[in-house]
Amino acid sequence: MKTFYRITGLICAVYGMVILGILGMGGVFNFFFLAAGLFLMALSLLWDRMSVTLKKGLTALTVVLGMLFLIIEGIIIHDAVSPTGENADYVIVLGARVRKDGPTVDFKARIEAAYRYAHDNERVMIITTGGKGDDEHMAEALVAKNYLMNMGIPEDRIIYEDRSTNTQENIENSRMLIEGRGDDPETSRVVIVSASYHLCRARFIAGRMGFRNVETLGSNGLMILMPHYYTREFFALIKDFVDLTFFENQTVLN
User: Fold this and answer.
1) CA 224, CA 234: separation in Å to the nearest integer?
2) Angle at CA 153, nearest 5°, toward 149 and 157?
3) What's the structural domain count of the chain?
4) I need a labelling partner for 147 at 20 to 30 A (CA). Which of 2, 9, 70, 203 fits?
5) Which pairs count as long-range contacts for 59-65, CB under 8 Å and 24+ apart, including other chains?
6) Collapsing DSSP states into helix, strand and coil, what is residue 26?
7) 233 lies in the same domain as 110
8) What is the pTM of this model?
């Protein structure tokens, strides 16, 4: 275990510095891999001074947490690679950060995935979601709508929802828009478009919001960031499961 902690810690620390170099220090979770790496390397340095009982306890904890991580990540990856059926009634594009020059790489990938689906399925309506953050010049939903129209999707096929601030509100407000059109969210075929790592959590939240016929469509951003985002989803999925199962009025993560 000493060698495992040392090598794993070194890999995590190096990757953590890469994450901070790309994403900056704006998010708390951006420090996760660096902190985890330093912690694991510290364990390796202290390993020989530990009692046998402590070593066994740490080993058992590492195995249990590792198995839990692999199981949940397997569920997340399953949704990320699941095929998407044709001829849905609605496509819901989950919002993401925008900049003055347009959508971020992640958001652009979501919008383009929705465009490809809408291009191949001409009867589907697209719902773009996301309000205007304090550091954003325009609502995310409107940015996505304009981007889709510039790519050739007619305006009458796009509905935009510009009040939501997180995933739960994205989906809940989309449900109200579908109901407002006279359709039943429980029977309508819905495809949720988001980053591939986010799809499992989005499907879970949609189920709690009353959608019963949901599929997902994933997009990928920078591959170097995928381990970071998939690891973040491990914690976010657990938190949202607890919040929506035991504390239904709590706000889920973005």
Assistant:
1) 18
2) 105
3) 2
4) 203
5) 59/1, 62/1, 62/4
6) coil
7) yes
8) 0.85
CA angle 44, 231, 167 (to 5 degrees): 150
Alpha carbon 148 to chain centroid, angstroms: 21
Q: Which residues contact 136 (CB under 8 A, 6 or more apart)?
A: 97, 98, 99
* Distance from C-alpha of 36 to C-alpha of 43, rounded to nearest angstrom: 11
Q: What does the chain come to in residues?
A: 254
pLDDT tens sequence across 226-242: 999 999 999 999 988 88
106 token code pair: 């992640």
Inside any domain, residue 188: yes
Is there a single domain that holds both residue 126 and residue 147? Answer: yes
Q: What does the pLDDT look like over 77-128, one tens digit per residue?
A: 999 988 899 989 999 999 988 888 788 888 999 999 999 999 999 899 999 9
Give residues with Cβ within 8 angstroms of 231, minimum separation 6: 32, 33
Dist. CA 84–CA 81, nearest whole Å: 9
In a domain, 7, yes or no: yes
Give the dihedral sign, CA 190/181/160/148: positive
Give counts: helices (H), strands (E), the chain.
8, 7
Q: Are residues 76 and 98 in the same domain?
A: no
Write phi, then psi, for 126 (nearest 5 degrees).
-110, 130
